[in-house]
Amino acid sequence: MTSQTVDIATLGRQAAILLSQRRYEPAADAYVALLAARPDSANDWFNYGYVLRCLRRFEPALDAYARALTLRVQQPEEVHVNRAAILSDHLQRDAEAVVELEAALRANPRYVIALLNLGHIHEDHGRRAEARAAYARVLALDPLNGRALARTAAIDQFEQAPERAVASLRKALQHRLHPEDAAEIGFALGNALDAAGQYEEAWAALRSANDGARRLRPPAEAYSKAAHDRLIDALIATKLPPALSAGEDAPPLFICGMFRSGSTLAEQVLARHRDVAAGGELEALPAIVAQRLSPYPDTLTTATPDLLAELRDQYLREVAPLRAGAGIVTDKRPDNFLHIGLIKTLFPTAKIIHTRRDPIDTLVSIYALNFADGVAYGNDLGDIVHYIRAYRRLMAHWATLYPDDIFDLDYDRLVADPQPVVEGLLAFCDLDWDEACLSQKPSEASVRTASSWQVRQPLHNRSSGRWRNYAPFLAEVKAALD
Protein backbone atom coordinates (compact mmCIF):
# COMPACT_ATOMS: atom_id res chain seq x y z
CA MET A 1 0.00 0.00 0.00
CA THR A 2 1.45 3.36 -1.02
CA SER A 3 1.67 6.39 1.24
CA GLN A 4 -0.64 8.24 -1.17
CA THR A 5 -3.30 5.53 -0.71
CA VAL A 6 -2.94 5.79 3.06
CA ASP A 7 -3.22 9.57 2.92
CA ILE A 8 -6.38 9.38 0.81
CA ALA A 9 -7.88 6.83 3.19
CA THR A 10 -7.05 9.10 6.12
CA LEU A 11 -8.59 12.10 4.39
CA GLY A 12 -11.70 10.08 3.67
CA ARG A 13 -12.07 9.02 7.31
CA GLN A 14 -11.49 12.57 8.53
CA ALA A 15 -14.08 14.00 6.17
CA ALA A 16 -16.62 11.32 7.14
CA ILE A 17 -16.07 11.93 10.86
CA LEU A 18 -16.48 15.69 10.52
CA LEU A 19 -19.65 15.19 8.49
CA SER A 20 -21.10 12.80 11.07
CA GLN A 21 -20.32 15.39 13.77
CA ARG A 22 -22.09 18.10 11.74
CA ARG A 23 -18.95 20.22 11.77
CA TYR A 24 -19.67 21.49 8.31
CA GLU A 25 -17.00 24.16 7.87
CA PRO A 26 -14.05 21.83 8.57
CA ALA A 27 -15.90 19.06 6.73
CA ALA A 28 -16.03 21.25 3.63
CA ASP A 29 -12.27 21.85 3.85
CA ALA A 30 -11.70 18.12 4.31
CA TYR A 31 -13.74 17.25 1.22
CA VAL A 32 -11.89 19.86 -0.85
CA ALA A 33 -8.62 18.16 0.10
CA LEU A 34 -10.10 14.71 -0.49
CA LEU A 35 -11.47 15.61 -3.93
CA ALA A 36 -8.14 17.11 -4.93
CA ALA A 37 -6.63 13.69 -4.21
CA ARG A 38 -9.39 11.58 -5.81
CA PRO A 39 -11.52 13.80 -8.07
CA ASP A 40 -13.39 10.91 -9.67
CA SER A 41 -15.25 9.72 -6.56
CA ALA A 42 -18.99 10.23 -7.11
CA ASN A 43 -19.77 9.56 -3.44
CA ASP A 44 -17.30 12.20 -2.28
CA TRP A 45 -18.89 14.77 -4.59
CA PHE A 46 -22.31 13.79 -3.25
CA ASN A 47 -21.18 14.24 0.35
CA TYR A 48 -19.47 17.52 -0.50
CA GLY A 49 -22.70 18.73 -2.07
CA TYR A 50 -24.57 17.85 1.11
CA VAL A 51 -22.05 19.72 3.26
CA LEU A 52 -22.32 22.80 1.05
CA ARG A 53 -26.10 22.63 1.24
CA CYS A 54 -25.91 22.57 5.04
CA LEU A 55 -23.63 25.62 4.85
CA ARG A 56 -26.26 27.31 2.65
CA ARG A 57 -23.81 27.64 -0.25
CA PHE A 58 -26.48 26.65 -2.69
CA GLU A 59 -24.93 27.26 -6.10
CA PRO A 60 -21.70 25.39 -5.25
CA ALA A 61 -23.84 22.60 -3.79
CA LEU A 62 -25.72 22.29 -7.08
CA ASP A 63 -22.39 22.07 -8.90
CA ALA A 64 -21.09 19.35 -6.56
CA TYR A 65 -24.26 17.30 -6.98
CA ALA A 66 -24.03 17.70 -10.76
CA ARG A 67 -20.49 16.38 -10.64
CA ALA A 68 -21.70 13.32 -8.71
CA LEU A 69 -24.28 12.69 -11.42
CA THR A 70 -21.67 13.06 -14.17
CA LEU A 71 -19.59 10.42 -12.38
CA ARG A 72 -22.60 8.07 -12.34
CA VAL A 73 -23.29 8.07 -8.63
CA GLN A 74 -25.37 5.16 -7.38
CA GLN A 75 -29.06 5.97 -6.75
CA PRO A 76 -29.00 9.14 -8.84
CA GLU A 77 -32.63 9.79 -7.92
CA GLU A 78 -31.46 10.95 -4.48
CA VAL A 79 -29.12 13.49 -6.05
CA HIS A 80 -31.85 14.83 -8.32
CA VAL A 81 -34.20 15.23 -5.34
CA ASN A 82 -31.52 17.08 -3.37
CA ARG A 83 -30.93 19.41 -6.31
CA ALA A 84 -34.68 19.96 -6.64
CA ALA A 85 -34.94 20.88 -2.94
CA ILE A 86 -32.25 23.55 -3.31
CA LEU A 87 -33.77 24.93 -6.50
CA SER A 88 -37.30 25.09 -5.12
CA ASP A 89 -36.90 25.77 -1.39
CA HIS A 90 -33.99 28.20 -1.51
CA LEU A 91 -33.65 29.66 -5.00
CA GLN A 92 -37.30 29.73 -6.13
CA ARG A 93 -36.38 28.14 -9.44
CA ASP A 94 -39.33 25.79 -9.49
CA ALA A 95 -39.30 25.00 -13.20
CA GLU A 96 -35.75 23.66 -12.86
CA ALA A 97 -36.77 21.76 -9.73
CA VAL A 98 -39.54 20.02 -11.69
CA VAL A 99 -36.97 18.97 -14.31
CA GLU A 100 -34.83 17.43 -11.55
CA LEU A 101 -37.78 15.58 -10.04
CA GLU A 102 -38.78 14.20 -13.42
CA ALA A 103 -35.18 13.02 -13.87
CA ALA A 104 -35.37 11.33 -10.47
CA LEU A 105 -38.54 9.53 -11.55
CA ARG A 106 -36.96 8.39 -14.79
CA ALA A 107 -34.18 6.86 -12.71
CA ASN A 108 -36.66 5.33 -10.25
CA PRO A 109 -40.38 5.56 -11.14
CA ARG A 110 -41.28 4.27 -7.67
CA TYR A 111 -39.42 7.02 -5.79
CA VAL A 112 -42.15 8.31 -3.49
CA ILE A 113 -40.20 11.31 -2.17
CA ALA A 114 -39.82 12.66 -5.70
CA LEU A 115 -43.54 12.23 -6.37
CA LEU A 116 -44.49 13.97 -3.14
CA ASN A 117 -42.15 16.87 -3.82
CA LEU A 118 -43.50 17.17 -7.34
CA GLY A 119 -47.01 17.32 -5.93
CA HIS A 120 -45.96 20.03 -3.47
CA ILE A 121 -44.53 22.23 -6.24
CA HIS A 122 -47.69 21.85 -8.30
CA GLU A 123 -49.73 22.82 -5.22
CA ASP A 124 -47.50 25.84 -4.60
CA HIS A 125 -48.41 27.05 -8.10
CA GLY A 126 -52.10 26.24 -7.84
CA ARG A 127 -51.94 23.40 -10.38
CA ARG A 128 -54.60 21.15 -8.87
CA ALA A 129 -54.83 18.51 -11.61
CA GLU A 130 -51.07 18.00 -11.74
CA ALA A 131 -50.78 17.87 -7.95
CA ARG A 132 -53.62 15.39 -7.67
CA ALA A 133 -52.01 13.22 -10.36
CA ALA A 134 -48.67 13.17 -8.50
CA TYR A 135 -50.37 12.15 -5.27
CA ALA A 136 -52.38 9.50 -7.10
CA ARG A 137 -49.12 7.96 -8.29
CA VAL A 138 -47.92 7.88 -4.67
CA LEU A 139 -51.13 6.19 -3.53
CA ALA A 140 -50.84 3.61 -6.30
CA LEU A 141 -47.51 2.63 -4.73
CA ASP A 142 -48.45 3.21 -1.09
CA PRO A 143 -52.24 3.39 -0.59
CA LEU A 144 -51.90 4.53 3.04
CA ASN A 145 -49.32 7.26 2.53
CA GLY A 146 -50.40 9.93 4.99
CA ARG A 147 -48.93 12.91 3.16
CA ALA A 148 -50.50 12.00 -0.18
CA LEU A 149 -53.89 11.35 1.40
CA ALA A 150 -53.75 14.59 3.39
CA ARG A 151 -52.75 16.77 0.45
CA THR A 152 -55.37 15.17 -1.80
CA ALA A 153 -57.93 15.96 0.90
CA ALA A 154 -56.79 19.59 0.91
CA ILE A 155 -57.44 19.77 -2.83
CA ASP A 156 -60.86 18.19 -2.30
CA GLN A 157 -61.70 20.91 0.23
CA PHE A 158 -60.61 23.64 -2.16
CA GLU A 159 -62.94 22.09 -4.74
CA GLN A 160 -65.81 22.28 -2.22
CA ALA A 161 -65.89 18.51 -1.72
CA PRO A 162 -65.01 18.01 1.98
CA GLU A 163 -67.35 15.00 2.21
CA ARG A 164 -65.21 13.22 -0.39
CA ALA A 165 -62.12 13.93 1.71
CA VAL A 166 -63.83 12.75 4.92
CA ALA A 167 -64.80 9.44 3.32
CA SER A 168 -61.32 8.64 1.98
CA LEU A 169 -59.58 9.65 5.22
CA ARG A 170 -61.93 7.66 7.45
CA LYS A 171 -61.41 4.64 5.23
CA ALA A 172 -57.62 4.98 5.63
CA LEU A 173 -57.88 5.28 9.41
CA GLN A 174 -59.53 1.87 9.59
CA HIS A 175 -56.14 0.32 8.76
CA ARG A 176 -53.11 -0.25 10.95
CA LEU A 177 -50.96 2.81 10.15
CA HIS A 178 -47.50 4.07 10.84
CA PRO A 179 -47.87 6.73 13.57
CA GLU A 180 -46.66 9.51 11.25
CA ASP A 181 -49.22 8.54 8.62
CA ALA A 182 -51.94 8.34 11.26
CA ALA A 183 -51.11 11.86 12.46
CA GLU A 184 -51.10 13.28 8.92
CA ILE A 185 -54.43 11.66 8.14
CA GLY A 186 -55.90 12.70 11.48
CA PHE A 187 -55.10 16.38 10.94
CA ALA A 188 -56.51 16.20 7.41
CA LEU A 189 -59.68 14.55 8.70
CA GLY A 190 -60.14 17.24 11.35
CA ASN A 191 -59.87 19.99 8.74
CA ALA A 192 -62.17 18.21 6.30
CA LEU A 193 -64.80 17.78 9.02
CA ASP A 194 -64.39 21.46 9.88
CA ALA A 195 -65.04 22.36 6.25
CA ALA A 196 -68.12 20.12 6.32
CA GLY A 197 -69.43 21.90 9.41
CA GLN A 198 -69.12 18.83 11.66
CA TYR A 199 -67.32 20.66 14.45
CA GLU A 200 -67.61 18.23 17.35
CA GLU A 201 -66.23 15.40 15.26
CA ALA A 202 -63.58 17.74 13.84
CA TRP A 203 -62.32 18.64 17.29
CA ALA A 204 -62.17 14.98 18.32
CA ALA A 205 -60.10 14.20 15.21
CA LEU A 206 -57.75 17.14 15.83
CA ARG A 207 -57.29 16.23 19.48
CA SER A 208 -56.41 12.65 18.53
CA ALA A 209 -54.02 13.82 15.79
CA ASN A 210 -52.25 16.24 18.13
CA ASP A 211 -51.91 13.57 20.80
CA GLY A 212 -50.34 11.27 18.21
CA ALA A 213 -48.01 13.97 16.92
CA ARG A 214 -46.89 14.81 20.44
CA ARG A 215 -46.01 11.17 21.09
CA LEU A 216 -43.84 11.17 17.97
CA ARG A 217 -41.68 14.01 19.27
CA PRO A 218 -38.45 12.91 21.03
CA PRO A 219 -38.41 14.09 24.67
CA ALA A 220 -35.34 16.26 24.01
CA GLU A 221 -37.35 18.20 21.39
CA ALA A 222 -40.46 18.73 23.51
CA TYR A 223 -41.56 22.29 24.20
CA SER A 224 -40.17 23.61 27.48
CA LYS A 225 -42.06 26.53 28.97
CA ALA A 226 -39.16 27.29 31.31
CA ALA A 227 -36.59 27.28 28.49
CA HIS A 228 -38.75 29.51 26.33
CA ASP A 229 -39.28 31.95 29.19
CA ARG A 230 -35.52 32.11 29.65
CA LEU A 231 -35.09 32.93 25.95
CA ILE A 232 -37.69 35.71 26.08
CA ASP A 233 -36.15 37.11 29.28
CA ALA A 234 -32.71 37.08 27.67
CA LEU A 235 -33.94 38.80 24.51
CA ILE A 236 -35.55 41.55 26.57
CA ALA A 237 -32.49 41.98 28.79
CA THR A 238 -29.86 41.88 26.02
CA LYS A 239 -27.94 45.09 25.44
CA LEU A 240 -27.80 45.27 21.67
CA PRO A 241 -24.64 46.51 19.94
CA PRO A 242 -24.75 49.75 17.94
CA ALA A 243 -26.64 49.34 14.70
CA LEU A 244 -24.72 49.22 11.44
CA SER A 245 -24.92 52.14 9.05
CA ALA A 246 -27.68 51.84 6.48
CA GLY A 247 -26.42 50.09 3.37
CA GLU A 248 -27.04 50.91 -0.27
CA ASP A 249 -29.41 47.99 -0.86
CA ALA A 250 -33.00 48.36 0.32
CA PRO A 251 -33.51 46.00 3.27
CA PRO A 252 -36.22 43.37 2.99
CA LEU A 253 -39.68 43.96 4.36
CA PHE A 254 -39.84 41.64 7.37
CA ILE A 255 -43.27 40.13 8.01
CA CYS A 256 -43.51 38.37 11.34
CA GLY A 257 -45.83 37.46 14.19
CA MET A 258 -47.46 34.26 15.36
CA PHE A 259 -47.75 31.42 12.90
CA ARG A 260 -51.26 31.39 11.38
CA SER A 261 -51.79 35.11 11.99
CA GLY A 262 -52.03 36.26 8.36
CA SER A 263 -48.39 36.55 7.26
CA THR A 264 -49.00 34.81 3.93
CA LEU A 265 -51.95 37.06 3.14
CA ALA A 266 -49.87 40.12 4.04
CA GLU A 267 -47.08 38.99 1.73
CA GLN A 268 -49.53 38.26 -1.10
CA VAL A 269 -50.96 41.78 -0.81
CA LEU A 270 -47.50 43.34 -0.89
CA ALA A 271 -46.22 41.10 -3.68
CA ARG A 272 -48.94 42.39 -6.01
CA HIS A 273 -47.18 45.76 -5.86
CA ARG A 274 -44.99 46.37 -8.89
CA ASP A 275 -41.93 47.14 -6.71
CA VAL A 276 -42.14 44.12 -4.39
CA ALA A 277 -41.12 40.47 -4.82
CA ALA A 278 -42.32 37.74 -2.46
CA GLY A 279 -39.37 36.04 -0.79
CA GLY A 280 -41.51 33.63 1.19
CA GLU A 281 -40.76 32.01 4.51
CA LEU A 282 -36.98 32.28 4.49
CA GLU A 283 -34.60 30.32 6.67
CA ALA A 284 -31.79 32.85 6.21
CA LEU A 285 -32.09 34.70 9.51
CA PRO A 286 -32.73 31.65 11.77
CA ALA A 287 -29.79 29.94 10.06
CA ILE A 288 -27.50 32.87 10.87
CA VAL A 289 -28.65 32.74 14.49
CA ALA A 290 -28.09 28.99 14.74
CA GLN A 291 -24.79 28.80 12.87
CA ARG A 292 -23.10 32.09 13.67
CA LEU A 293 -24.54 33.50 16.91
CA SER A 294 -24.74 30.60 19.33
CA PRO A 295 -25.37 30.93 22.25
CA TYR A 296 -28.09 33.37 21.29
CA PRO A 297 -28.77 36.11 22.22
CA ASP A 298 -25.75 36.33 24.53
CA THR A 299 -23.33 36.68 21.62
CA LEU A 300 -25.06 39.84 20.41
CA THR A 301 -23.72 41.82 23.35
CA THR A 302 -20.12 41.38 22.21
CA ALA A 303 -20.68 41.15 18.45
CA THR A 304 -18.14 43.31 16.64
CA PRO A 305 -19.02 45.66 13.77
CA ASP A 306 -17.01 43.42 11.43
CA LEU A 307 -19.01 40.33 12.43
CA LEU A 308 -22.31 42.16 12.10
CA ALA A 309 -21.35 43.46 8.65
CA GLU A 310 -20.41 39.93 7.63
CA LEU A 311 -23.78 38.59 8.82
CA ARG A 312 -25.65 41.36 7.02
CA ASP A 313 -23.79 40.62 3.79
CA GLN A 314 -24.40 36.89 4.19
CA TYR A 315 -28.13 37.51 4.54
CA LEU A 316 -28.23 39.86 1.53
CA ARG A 317 -26.32 37.39 -0.66
CA GLU A 318 -28.86 34.70 0.12
CA VAL A 319 -31.93 36.81 -0.62
CA ALA A 320 -30.47 38.59 -3.68
CA PRO A 321 -31.63 35.92 -6.20
CA LEU A 322 -35.20 36.28 -4.89
CA ARG A 323 -35.63 39.94 -5.85
CA ALA A 324 -36.60 38.99 -9.40
CA GLY A 325 -35.91 42.50 -10.63
CA ALA A 326 -37.99 44.17 -7.91
CA GLY A 327 -36.57 46.83 -5.64
CA ILE A 328 -37.78 45.18 -2.44
CA VAL A 329 -38.13 41.57 -1.34
CA THR A 330 -40.21 40.27 1.57
CA ASP A 331 -39.11 37.85 4.28
CA LYS A 332 -42.22 36.44 5.91
CA ARG A 333 -40.76 34.01 8.39
CA PRO A 334 -43.29 34.44 11.26
CA ASP A 335 -41.00 33.57 14.15
CA ASN A 336 -38.51 36.23 13.10
CA PHE A 337 -40.33 38.26 15.73
CA LEU A 338 -37.77 36.67 18.05
CA HIS A 339 -35.02 38.42 16.11
CA ILE A 340 -36.33 41.95 15.65
CA GLY A 341 -33.44 43.31 17.72
CA LEU A 342 -30.96 41.55 15.43
CA ILE A 343 -32.85 42.72 12.34
CA LYS A 344 -32.73 46.35 13.44
CA THR A 345 -29.03 46.00 14.28
CA LEU A 346 -28.16 44.65 10.84
CA PHE A 347 -30.70 46.77 8.94
CA PRO A 348 -31.43 49.95 10.90
CA THR A 349 -33.92 51.22 8.31
CA ALA A 350 -35.82 47.92 8.08
CA LYS A 351 -39.60 48.00 8.28
CA ILE A 352 -41.28 45.32 10.40
CA ILE A 353 -44.83 44.24 9.52
CA HIS A 354 -46.30 42.56 12.58
CA THR A 355 -49.31 40.41 11.69
CA ARG A 356 -51.92 40.11 14.40
CA ARG A 357 -55.11 38.09 14.67
CA ASP A 358 -57.62 37.26 17.37
CA PRO A 359 -55.43 35.09 19.64
CA ILE A 360 -58.04 32.39 20.15
CA ASP A 361 -58.47 32.06 16.36
CA THR A 362 -54.68 31.88 16.09
CA LEU A 363 -54.63 29.11 18.70
CA VAL A 364 -57.30 27.07 16.91
CA SER A 365 -55.53 27.48 13.57
CA ILE A 366 -52.22 26.31 15.04
CA TYR A 367 -53.87 23.34 16.73
CA ALA A 368 -55.50 22.36 13.43
CA LEU A 369 -52.23 22.25 11.48
CA ASN A 370 -49.66 19.48 11.35
CA PHE A 371 -46.36 21.30 11.80
CA ALA A 372 -44.51 17.97 12.20
CA ASP A 373 -41.21 18.84 13.91
CA GLY A 374 -41.28 22.54 13.00
CA VAL A 375 -43.29 23.96 15.93
CA ALA A 376 -42.72 22.20 19.24
CA TYR A 377 -45.55 23.99 21.06
CA GLY A 378 -48.24 23.33 18.46
CA ASN A 379 -49.72 20.05 19.73
CA ASP A 380 -50.82 21.11 23.21
CA LEU A 381 -53.36 23.87 23.95
CA GLY A 382 -51.55 24.87 27.15
CA ASP A 383 -48.25 25.14 25.31
CA ILE A 384 -49.82 27.29 22.59
CA VAL A 385 -51.28 29.62 25.24
CA HIS A 386 -47.89 29.91 26.90
CA TYR A 387 -46.14 30.68 23.61
CA ILE A 388 -48.70 33.33 22.66
CA ARG A 389 -48.33 35.06 26.02
CA ALA A 390 -44.53 35.02 25.73
CA TYR A 391 -44.77 36.41 22.18
CA ARG A 392 -46.98 39.25 23.42
CA ARG A 393 -44.45 40.09 26.10
CA LEU A 394 -41.57 40.23 23.63
CA MET A 395 -43.51 42.24 21.04
CA ALA A 396 -44.37 44.80 23.71
CA HIS A 397 -40.63 45.15 24.35
CA TRP A 398 -39.79 45.61 20.66
CA ALA A 399 -42.58 48.20 20.37
CA THR A 400 -40.91 50.33 23.03
CA LEU A 401 -37.56 50.14 21.22
CA TYR A 402 -38.79 50.64 17.65
CA PRO A 403 -42.20 52.34 17.86
CA ASP A 404 -41.96 53.94 14.42
CA ASP A 405 -40.64 50.89 12.58
CA ILE A 406 -43.27 48.28 13.45
CA PHE A 407 -46.64 48.24 11.69
CA ASP A 408 -49.39 46.20 13.35
CA LEU A 409 -51.35 44.55 10.53
CA ASP A 410 -54.65 43.27 11.88
CA TYR A 411 -55.81 40.21 9.93
CA ASP A 412 -59.47 40.57 10.91
CA ARG A 413 -59.59 44.23 9.85
CA LEU A 414 -57.80 43.39 6.58
CA VAL A 415 -60.31 40.74 5.51
CA ALA A 416 -63.32 42.80 6.66
CA ASP A 417 -62.39 46.09 4.95
CA PRO A 418 -59.19 45.75 2.90
CA GLN A 419 -58.66 49.18 1.35
CA PRO A 420 -57.93 51.34 4.42
CA VAL A 421 -55.67 48.65 5.87
CA VAL A 422 -53.74 48.25 2.60
CA GLU A 423 -53.44 52.02 2.24
CA GLY A 424 -51.88 52.23 5.70
CA LEU A 425 -49.58 49.29 4.98
CA LEU A 426 -48.23 50.73 1.74
CA ALA A 427 -47.72 54.16 3.31
CA PHE A 428 -45.76 52.56 6.15
CA CYS A 429 -43.58 50.75 3.61
CA ASP A 430 -42.97 53.99 1.65
CA LEU A 431 -44.67 52.44 -1.37
CA ASP A 432 -46.99 54.41 -3.60
CA TRP A 433 -50.55 53.25 -4.13
CA ASP A 434 -50.99 50.29 -6.46
CA GLU A 435 -54.55 49.16 -7.19
CA ALA A 436 -53.22 45.65 -7.85
CA CYS A 437 -52.72 45.18 -4.10
CA LEU A 438 -56.51 44.93 -3.76
CA SER A 439 -56.88 42.44 -6.61
CA GLN A 440 -59.09 39.43 -5.92
CA LYS A 441 -57.58 37.48 -8.80
CA PRO A 442 -55.73 34.38 -7.58
CA SER A 443 -51.99 34.88 -7.70
CA GLU A 444 -50.03 32.90 -10.27
CA ALA A 445 -46.92 33.11 -8.11
CA SER A 446 -45.69 30.26 -5.99
CA VAL A 447 -47.25 30.19 -2.51
CA ARG A 448 -45.27 28.11 -0.04
CA THR A 449 -47.43 27.79 3.03
CA ALA A 450 -49.66 25.30 4.78
CA SER A 451 -52.59 27.52 3.74
CA SER A 452 -51.63 27.63 0.05
CA TRP A 453 -55.15 26.74 -1.11
CA GLN A 454 -56.80 29.17 1.31
CA VAL A 455 -54.81 32.16 0.08
CA ARG A 456 -55.75 31.33 -3.51
CA GLN A 457 -59.40 32.00 -2.66
CA PRO A 458 -60.89 35.49 -2.99
CA LEU A 459 -60.47 37.54 0.18
CA HIS A 460 -63.01 36.42 2.80
CA ASN A 461 -63.63 36.70 6.52
CA ARG A 462 -64.81 33.13 7.12
CA SER A 463 -61.78 32.41 9.32
CA SER A 464 -62.49 35.37 11.61
CA GLY A 465 -64.27 34.05 14.68
CA ARG A 466 -63.65 30.44 13.67
CA TRP A 467 -63.00 29.61 17.32
CA ARG A 468 -66.72 29.99 18.11
CA ASN A 469 -67.34 26.68 16.37
CA TYR A 470 -65.25 25.11 19.13
CA ALA A 471 -66.27 27.29 22.06
CA PRO A 472 -67.33 24.34 24.29
CA PHE A 473 -63.76 23.02 24.18
CA LEU A 474 -61.97 26.34 24.65
CA ALA A 475 -63.33 28.01 27.78
CA GLU A 476 -60.16 27.48 29.82
CA VAL A 477 -57.69 28.56 27.15
CA LYS A 478 -59.83 31.52 26.13
CA ALA A 479 -59.82 32.77 29.70
CA ALA A 480 -56.02 32.44 29.76
CA LEU A 481 -55.71 34.56 26.60
CA ASP A 482 -58.24 37.27 27.45
Automatic annotation (TrEMBL):
One function term, GO molecular function aspect: protein-tyrosine sulfotransferase activity
Per-repeat ranges for TPR: 42-75, 112-145
One Pfam family per UniProt: TPR_16
Assigned keywords, A-Z: TPR repeat, Transferase
Keyword Nucleotide-binding: no
InterPro entries: P-loop_NTPase (IPR027417), TPR-like_helical_dom_sf (IPR011990), TPR_rpt (IPR019734), TPST-like (IPR026634)
The keyword Transferase is assigned to this record: yes
PANTHER family recorded: PROTEIN-TYROSINE SULFOTRANSFERASE, PROTEIN-TYROSINE SULFOTRANSFERASE 2
Protein's UniProt name: Sulfotransferase family protein
Source organism phylogeny: Bacteria, Pseudomonadati, Pseudomonadota, Alphaproteobacteria, Sphingomonadales
